């Protein structure tokens, strides 16, 4: 903790009198206009270094406040009207649900919050206390978080909960809600603190209305931990705050708060909250939204049982979600359609396309054609999805040529063809093994310049593999590498082809290439394929090495291969080798340290005996989409079963976790000792080139000028230790605080030296994106305002109340 600020000057009683009058004037005028010049000047001079001690002399007794804070609170309406017209922008993909313009929030019900009572300043018996409180109300909003806490700490000898509550309420009144929040958190750490439900509720509402959902949630959890049920307004505003944030995971949290509002609080949410949450659920592309079906059904149930108005898009959105499920519930869709008809709601184009999609998955040609005729009679423009679904439904009943006829009809009707249509028709013809037609359409697809081409290349290679045309498969593989970024799926198909055709030497080269490329990697399918080849050709020594790798990674061995392995292993080993005990390799340990510095989280049980590593990657970052596959492969043996995709699946989730294990205790104690990130005191020993490389790939950014920035959370002292250690390695850098995080910058030629050090450990497919001197757009919004030529930016978003190290 820094030493207290020195007193720059002593103030006379007259000066104190004027300060007190100014504070009273601001309290009187600022509620009328929070953005008035007076209100702005109150918090404008944030660079002044003022004494953390209030004035010691008392102002004249005649300086009593003319407009008290209690009166101002009483004058405010009891209910809080929340603006419900949120921005729910979503992907422009054709498969997203389109809402009618009439789907607006019209509920004007007021949300009542618990009354907050605060003593008037003039009611306090001691004049010196009134003077000190007035001084705190004036000074605290002008300070940064660390200074604010130091000022409050200097008042511990005399300040009471009643005093601190008055200061927090005053900060909220003048719209300095961040200062009010920090006063509240400081109060909670004092020995005299008793939980104040009304204060917590009021502060949570103000934080939520400013969309600061983390602070609002922190207060919400404080209320829950006290055994109290938050007010309806707190539930409502926190849910809306989550919905208004684009941060990954906020939609799930909004659903959780909404559910607890009903199940824990027993409240009946207003119509606008039902509609806002439902709209958020179906505003994503269908592939992502389909997982929210149960939540959408819960909202529908609540609307129905509450007797609230059911908008037509609620029915349409629910049918849309059902149409994306892997298993179609035809009875539920029919029930929803019947309810729409009973309510006099006409089936819109969106609803008809959703029903057509469901028919295509079921192979119900009769119903699909009836829906198609309805679309034609509706007079509206025919969407491209409708053609695609018709192609699919006819392919399901063995009519690929009809699908091709629909495709050509789509080209004539719409005058163009999109990527999804090409993907579907090539998939249909490849599965039907119509080789010449599939090849012709693939050529047409490539010449059109549309992308991505990868799904269609995979369909062609699967067709060639099933037909035993290994030469054509190889040429298609080579063509795919020239036009697309390679992935594991096409390598696995090519590897299977080489093994089946007996070309084991080339198969071995491809397997080693996959294993050596972190962006591709191997999986259960790859290992079983090469193991089958080795066993068939009598390469038993190589087969044992693959077996050892599969044991280490906990890959399942196919039963026929295991029978052969039992015999092979019995020739060289007395006992068949059991799966290896879990233990991190040196490479895995260094990767883990780099990811932890970049923001990886660790979850611990209550006794802190077992710990789980929580890997989370941002789907909007190009670097993360490549890095997540490599990390998933690196820690495959540690992952929970639900974190592993199927053998035939190439889709790695953006979030996956390891099993909870005591082995991670060292990393939890060093990096997450109290459930929050810290920088270990021995971090200087672990900053190897590989650690720095993975830190950069996971939590770093390259600016438009070619500089390299590394994101870091922790204390000022921890950041200084890292900077000192990097400079000891001849890596000159600067540290800059922005909000709750630090950025370590390698500027100019220093970024080149840093790149040369870590380049051998950067994934091949990420080198062009991350090389010093180029331009990357990942994290652009986070770093565009960072300047290392000045001091730290405003710490408004910081939540550290103690700058000392916790490690």
From TrEMBL:
Q: What is this protein called?
A: Protein ORGANELLE TRANSCRIPT PROCESSING 51
Keyword Lipid metabolism listed: no
The entry's family comment says: Belongs to the PPR family. P subfamily.
Origin species, per record, is Davidia involucrata (Dove tree)
Spell out the PANTHER family in the cross-references: PENTATRICOPEPTIDE REPEAT-CONTAINING PROTEIN OTP51, CHLOROPLASTIC (PTHR47539:SF1)
Provide one Gene Ontology biological process annotation. Answer: Group II intron splicing
The PPR repeat ranges on this chain: 418-452, 487-521, 523-557
Annotated compartments: Plastid, Chloroplast
Biased segments, Acidic residues type: 792-807
């Amino acid at each position: 903790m820094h030493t207290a600020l020195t007193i720059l000057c002593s103030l006379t009683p007259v000066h104190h009198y004027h300060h007190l009058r100014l504070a009273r004037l601001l309290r009187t005028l600022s509620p009328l206009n929070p953005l008035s010049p007076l209100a702005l000047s109150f918090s404008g001079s944030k660079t002044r270094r003022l004494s953390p001690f209030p004035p010691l002399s008392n102002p004249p007794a005649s300086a009593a406040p003319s407009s008290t804070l209690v009166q101002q609170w009483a004058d405010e309406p009891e209910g809080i009207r929340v603006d419900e017209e949120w921005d729910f922008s979503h992907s422009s993909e054709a498969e997203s649900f389109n809402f009618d313009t009439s789907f607006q929030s019209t509920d004007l019900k007021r949300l009542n919050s618990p009354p907050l009572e605060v003593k008037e300043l003039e009611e306090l018996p001691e004049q010196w206390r009134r003077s000190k409180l007035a001084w705190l109300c004036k000074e605290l909003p002008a300070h940064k978080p660390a200074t604010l806490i130091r000022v409050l700490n200097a008042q511990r000898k005399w300040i009471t909960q009643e005093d601190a509550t008055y200061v927090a309420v005053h900060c909220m009144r003048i719209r300095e809600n961040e200062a009010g929040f920090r006063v509240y958190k400081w109060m909670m750490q004092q020995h005299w603190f008793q939980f104040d439900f009304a204060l917590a509720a009021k502060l949570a509402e103000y934080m939520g209305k400013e969309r600061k959902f983390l602070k609002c949630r922190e207060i919400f959890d404080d209320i829950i931990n006290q055994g109290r049920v938050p007010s309806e307004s707190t539930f409502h505003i926190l849910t809306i705050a989550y919905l208004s944030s684009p941060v990954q995971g906020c939609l799930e949290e909004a659903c959780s708060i909404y559910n607890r509002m009903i199940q824990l609080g027993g409240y009946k949410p207003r119509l606008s909250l039902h509609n806002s949450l439902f709209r958020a659920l179906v505003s994503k592309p269908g592939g992502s939204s389909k997982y929210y079906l149960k939540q959408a059904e819960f909202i529908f149930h609540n609307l129905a049982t509450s007797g609230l108005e059911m908008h037509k898009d609620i029915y349409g959105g629910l049918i849309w979600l059902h149409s994306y499920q892997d298993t179609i519930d035809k009875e539920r869709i029919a029930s929803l359609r019947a309810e729409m008809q009973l309510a006099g709601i006409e089936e819109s184009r969106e609803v008809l396309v959703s029903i057509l999609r469901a028919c295509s998955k079921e192979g119900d040609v009769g119903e699909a054609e009836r829906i198609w005729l309805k679309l034609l009679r509706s007079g509206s423009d025919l969407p491209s999805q409708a053609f695609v679904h018709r192609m699919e439904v006819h392919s399901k009943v063995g009519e690929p040529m009809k699908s091709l006829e629909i495709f050509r009809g789509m080209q004539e009707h719409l005058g163009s063809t999109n990527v999804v249509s090409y993907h579907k028709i090539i998939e249909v013809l490849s599965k039907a093994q119509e080789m010449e037609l599939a090849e012709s359409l693939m050529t047409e697809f490539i010449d059109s310049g549309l992308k991505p081409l990868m799904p269609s290349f995979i369909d062609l290679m699967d067709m060639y593999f099933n037909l035993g045309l290994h030469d054509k498969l190889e040429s298609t593989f080579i063509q795919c590498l020239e036009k697309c970024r390679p992935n594991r799926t096409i390598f696995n198909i090519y590897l299977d082809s080489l093994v089946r055709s007996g070309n084991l030497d080339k198969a071995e080269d491809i397997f080693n290439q996959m294993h050596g490329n972190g962006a591709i990697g191997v999986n259960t399918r790859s290992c079983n394929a090469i193991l089958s080849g080795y066993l068939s050709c009598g390469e038993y020594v190589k087969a044992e090495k693959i077996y050892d790798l599969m044991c280490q990674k906990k890959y399942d061995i196919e039963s026929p291969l295991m029978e052969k392995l039992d015999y092979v292993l019995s020739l060289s080993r007395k006992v068949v080798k059991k799966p290896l005990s879990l233990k991190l390799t040196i490479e895995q340990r260094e990767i883990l340290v780099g990811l932890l510095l970049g923001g990886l989280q660790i979850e611990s049980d209550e006794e802190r005996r077992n710990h789980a590593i929580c890997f989370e990657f941002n789907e909007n970052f190009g670097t993360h989409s490549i890095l997540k596959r490599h990390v998933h492969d690196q820690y495959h043996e540690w992952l929970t079963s639900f974190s592993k995709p199927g053998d035939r699946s190439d889709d790695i989730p953006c979030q996956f976790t390891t099993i909870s294990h005591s082995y991670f205790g060292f990393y939890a104690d060093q990096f997450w000792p109290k459930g929050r990130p810290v920088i270990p005191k021995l971090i200087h020993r672990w900053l190897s080139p590989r650690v720095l490389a993975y830190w950069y790939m996971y939590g770093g950014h390259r600016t438009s000028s070619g500089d390299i920035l590394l994101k870091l959370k922790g204390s000022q002292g921890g950041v200084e230790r890292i900077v000192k250690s990097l400079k000891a390695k001849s890596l000159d850098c600067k540290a800059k605080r922005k909000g709750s995080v630090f950025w370590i910058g390698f500027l100019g030629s220093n970024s080149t030296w840093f790149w040369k050090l870590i380049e051998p450990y950067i994934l091949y497919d990420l080198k062009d994106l991350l090389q010093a001197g180029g331009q990357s757009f990942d994290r652009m919004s986070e770093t565009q305002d960072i300047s290392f030529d000045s001091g730290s930016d405003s710490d408004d978003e910081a939540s550290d109340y103690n700058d000392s190290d916790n490690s």
